[in-house]
Amino acid sequence: MKFIDEAIIEVKAGDGGNGCLSFRREKYVPRGGPDGGDGGNGGSCILKAKAGITTLMDLKFRKHFEAKRGVHGKGKKMYGKAGDDVVIIVPIGTTIKEAKTGKVLVDLARAGQEFVVAKGGKGGRGNARFVSSTRQAPQIAEKGKEGEEKTIKLELKLLADVGLIGFPNAGKSTLIAAISNARPKIADYPFTTKVPHLGVVRLNTEKSFVVADIPGLIEGAHKGAGMGIQFLKHIERTKILLHLIDVIDPTQSDPLAAYRAIREELGAYQPALLEKPEIIVLTKMDMQKAFEQKKEMEKVFKNLGKPIFAISALKKEGLKPLLQEASKFLT
Is 322 helix (H, G, I), strand (E, B) or coil? Predict the structure, then answer.
């Protein structure tokens, strides 16, 4: 499933270093010629696509990037050092646009592809550059040029790594709101979620992944019941499924039968969906009635040979081990 992850950042390339106005002055050389060196070029801001990064999360926390300016030139025709570039790492598939106009500057579609988004200023020339047959002792040197400065918008069309599935009102929206930046509508009645929601889950500073809250499936979904086919197609490109089960759902007296019903819908729509890794998630453990059935339900589902986790998304209990287990399937 695709969605747009966005970030707006400011980039400032380094200014060029100034050229030097200098004349050679040494013992026995009282009237040496001009020897002012050039200033170094300013560093540029470069965007680079890298495999293994799936979101623009880091760029939402750091909004400003500035490259180093070039070092000024010196006497004895010593050139200033160029300023260091700033390389901004982005996921493959990131589109770069001008923030104000929306003009597309580049699509970074390949690993290792680079784009200079803000070019460093050129270093100024020292007075040694201005010597001519008619001007033997030039008293001029150039200042460095200013580096480019831009505000750019980055857009990333992402595929969801993890799909949340289950009957309506199984707790999918509550879970995605608890573990990510997504804020779906949440209420205690079926079909609250009518469109898929996606959120970025950040495990640590180096790892994050995208979760899709697939609206509740019902029996007959593969034939189009409810909005079944629209929802099922979003599951196809996820890497792992979290199958949420409300063990005290009044509309589903047998949780195991409810689980199998959803599995049948997946298989009827696309048999390959049954081959995806799956984690069974028993939800709403903050409710006394559900908690009392926890051990019994774990025994019932244990025979399926799949990881089982009991959680309370409302109280954020049991979420960390669940996410850590899910992340193992995304390496």
Answer: helix
Report whether pLDDT(156) > 50. yes
Query: In whole angstroms, what is the distance from residue 74 CA to residue 112 CA?
Result: 36
Q: Examine the domain organization and report whether 150 and 176 are in the same domain.
A: no
Among candidates 69, 75, 68, which has minimal Cα distance to 38? 75
Give me the chain's average pLDDT, please.
Answer: 86
Question: What CA–CA distance (Å, rounded) separates 66 from 10?
Answer: 8
Domain that holds residue 121: 2-157
Kindly report, residue by residue over 249-261, the tens digit of the pLDDT.
988 889 999 899 8
Question: What is the side-by-side order of every strand in the sheet holding 208-213?
Answer: 197-202, 208-213, 162-165, 240-245, 278-282, 308-310
| CATH number of domain containing 92 | 2.70.210.12
Question: Which of 40-54, 95-109, 225-239, 284-298 shows the lowest per-residue confidence on average (mean pLDDT)?
Answer: 225-239
Structure-token pair, residue 120: 């460093």
Domain count for the chain, please give it: 2
DSSP-derived pairing of the beta strands 208-213 and 64-66: unpaired
Average the pLDDT over 295-311 and give the result: 92
The two beta strands, 104-108 and 114-118, are unpaired
Strands (E), 29-148: 45-50, 64-66, 86-91, 94-98, 104-108, 114-118
What pLDDT does 322 receive? Answer: 96
For residue 87, what are the contacts with CB-CB under 8 A and spacing of at least 6?
46, 47, 48, 114
Confidence at 183, pLDDT banded by 50, 70, 90: low
Q: Backbone phi, then psi, for 31, in 5-degree steps?
A: -125, 55
State whether 323 and 181 are in the same domain: yes
- pLDDT of amino acid 228: 42
- Residue that terminates a domain, selected from 157, 190, 221: 157
Query: How far apart are alpha carbons 87 and 45 in whole angstroms?
Result: 6
**Amino acid at residue number 253:** S
